[in-house]
Design goal:
Oligomer: heterodimer
Order of helices and strands of chain B: HEEHHHHHHH
Number of helices of chain A: 4
Number of strands of chain A: 0
Helix content of chain A: 40-55%
Subcellular location (chain B): Mitochondrion inner membrane
Helix content of chain B: 55-70%
Distance between the termini of chain A: 55 Å
Catalytic activity (chain B): H(+)(in) = H(+)(out)
Largest sheet of chain A: none
Shape of chain A: extended
InterPro entries (chain B): ATP_synth_F0_asu, ATP_synth_F0_asu_AS, ATP_synth_F0_asu_bact/mt, F0_ATP_A_sf
Number of strands of chain B: 2
Family (chain B): Belongs to the ATPase A chain family.
Radius of gyration of chain B: 22 Å
Strand content of chain A: under 5%
Largest interface: A-B, 22 and 19 residues
Number of helices of chain B: 8
Organism (chain B): Panthera leo (Lion)
Chain lengths: 88, 226
């Protein structure tokens, strides 16, 4: 189970399945770490889809689709009653 | 149906957490800041729009009024983007809440009035009496002008709230009517559907126009007072 490289410094794709819980627990969960994670995620998406030479409408429309999905999950409880059913 | 109609306007909280804060902050993600001389397409498009709007909006102001450029441009961007995002299905529009619109209107209007009083006291007070009024009418006219001054922020907020809320409500109602009519009479349902399409186009226009009107009026109050 012990590998030559310490678990903490490996990227997710290199971590073996058995080492996964240990890897997750070693991540930085301080507010600074979480903010860093959000920032990294934002710039990863931005540099892949928006900040390119010929960016298309797909870059923002994926964000808007995710926003619609988030709002749908938010009001699912009220929308449940509007399904097409014989008896409500 | 009564409860269903207005549930889309309640402040969203998910399991007690105020999600509304996230929803209000969401439009800021869609406006990346330009970092280079030549930017990507999204940023260039936004830059062009902002320059077009700011040139038109700040043309009437003098030097003192143009210090408000950042405030006015961020105002119109915020209200425009929030209104447009509210047209997506199931989304919550913060500008339907009177509390938020009053929170935007009252400080901005008060800022313009206080600026006017501080820098041009006589001219600001002179606004209460239009030129050339007959002498017997003066007391009544001062009262009327005072009332019309104090109603400006309330009118700003209520105008925005009422327009956006009414549009959303109409869309919900007509959409529900179209759905209910498909089983009863298909041609009438088709007519109702066409009405819904036209209404959606109107709502897009209203979203932008309301942002413009709000900002234009604030800028007008500013012009009077600088």
């Amino acid at each position: 189970m012990a590998s030559p490289v310490p678990v903490k410094e490996k990227k997710l794709m290199d971590v073996k399945l058995g080492e996964l819980p240990g890897w997750i627990l070693m991540r930085d969960f301080t507010p600074r770490g979480i903010a860093g994670a959000f920032q990294r995620g934002y710039y990863r998406y931005y540099n892949k889809y928006v900040n390119v030479k010929k960016g298309s409408v797909a870059g923002i429309s994926m964000v808007l689709a995710a926003y619609v999905l988030f709002n749908y999950c938010r009001c699912y409880k009220e929308l449940k009653h509007e399904r097409l059913r014989k008896y409500h | 149906m009564n409860e269903n109609l207005f549930t889309s306007f309640i402040t969203p909280t998910m399991m007690g957490l105020p999600v509304v804060v996230l929803i209000i902050m969401f439009p800021s993600i869609l406006f990346p800041s330009p970092s280079r001389l030549i930017n990507n397409r999204l940023v260039s498009l936004q830059q062009w729009l902002v320059q077009l709007t700011s040139k038109q909006m700040l043309a009437i102001h003098n030097h003192k009024g143009q210090t408000w450029a950042l405030m006015l441009m961020s105002l119109i961007l915020f209200i425009g983007s929030t209104n447009l995002l509210g047209l997506l299905p199931h989304s919550f529009t913060p500008t339907t809440q009177l509390s938020m619109n009053l929170g935007m209107a009252i400080p901005l209007w008060a800022g313009t009035v206080v600026t006017g009083f501080r820098h041009k006291t006589k001219a600001s007070l002179a606004h209460f009496l239009p030129q050339g009024t007959p002498i017997p009418l003066i007391p009544m006219l001062v009262i009327i002008e005072t009332i019309s001054l104090f109603i400006q922020p309330v009118a700003l907020a209520v105008r925005l709230t009422a327009n956006i809320t009414a549009g959303h409500l109409l869309m919900h109602l007509i959409g529900g009517a179209t759905l209910a009519l498909t089983n009863i009479n298909a041609s009438v349902a088709l007519i109702t559907f066409i009405i819904l399409i036209l209404l959606t186009v109107l709502e897009f226009a209203v979203a932008l126009i309301q942002a413009y009107v709000f900002t234009l009026l604030v800028s007008l109050y500013l012009h009077d007072n600088t």
